[in-house]
Automatic annotation (TrEMBL):
This is Carboxy-S-adenosyl-L-methionine synthase. Belongs to the class I-like SAM-binding methyltransferase superfamily. Cx-SAM synthase family. SUPFAM superfamilies: S-adenosyl-L-methionine-dependent methyltransferases. Residues 69-165 form the Methyltransferase domain.
Length: 251
């Protein structure tokens, strides 16, 4: 294995830096290699959300429960949950349908100096078994699930969640107002430019991802979460068109 292909090597995202044939975005090996750089430079607030997942997990994890990171990618939120769980008898499970992501995630987990075991599964989150959960994370994952399958997934999560348990849901959203949508999109693109992305990279990435990442309004998310079985929904973080919500199951 070459130095530049080591699973824990942080590479600069240049995937869309040159002209390429249009194709839908995929979480393949090429994306997995540059994913830490890609998400840091593309998602405003990501470096704040990850450590706060640790804080939230510490507050809501329950002894003897299961904790899930659905769509764990390289395990950033999985590791945050691992360090937040205060009980040694909890089970932590990371799930992703990308074999390339899971392979690299295994190496990050192995390098982490923590005793709580982590179980990784390479499977679709819509199919994975969920039970006795106190904390579940969907960190920029639901937006890649087909809209017609989202309610069923959230209902399964809510049903599997213990009283007093939570779902941490981070998403790119769209806005009711066209003016606000245009403003927030422009600010997001300026964020990317400030992080070194060219106009070509921004344009090509947007074209690749717009058919697979389907954002919804905050009100749509809130309504669905409550209809799925969660009792309270609050926004604990927002930057431009990216938010993170906390859906709470009543005691």
């Amino acid at each position: 294995m070459s130095k530049s292909d080591r699973p824990t090597e942080t590479l600069t995202d240049r995937l869309f830096a040159t002209e390429r044939q249009p194709e839908d975005f995929r979480f393949d090996a090429a994306v997995a290699r540059v994913f830490p750089d890609m998400i840091r430079r593309s998602v405003p607030g990501y470096t704040t959300i990850i450590p706060m997942i640790e804080v939230i997990t510490e507050q809501y994890a329950q002894a003897g429960s299961n904790c899930y990171d659905l769509g764990c990618s390289l395990g950033a939120s999985t590791l945050a949950m691992r360090h937040g769980i205060p009980f040694g008898d909890c089970t932590l499970v990371g799930i992703d349908n990308s074999a390339a992501m899971i392979e690299r995630c295994e190496h990050y987990i192995a390098l982490d100096d923590h005793s709580l075991p982590v179980s990784l599964r390479c499977e679709n989150i819509q199919d994975t078994e969920l039970s006795d959960a106190s904390v579940t994370t969907l960190n920029f994952t639901l937006q890649f699930v087909p809209p017609e399958e989202r309610s069923a997934l959230l209902s399964r999560i809510a049903k599997a969640t213990r009283p007093g348990g939570v779902l941490i849901l981070s998403e790119k959203i769209r806005f009711e107002s066209e003016d606000e949508q245009d403003t927030q999109t422009r600010l997001h693109h300026e964020f990317k430019r400030a992080n070194g992305y060219s106009d070509l990279e921004i344009s090509q990435k947007r074209s690749a991802i717009e058919q697979v990442l389907i954002p919804e309004t905050l009100s749509a998310h809130t309504q669905r979460l409550k209809e799925s079985g969660f009792d309270r929904v609050l926004v604990w973080y927002q930057c431009f068109n990216f938010v993170s919500m906390l859906a709470i199951k009543a005691d």
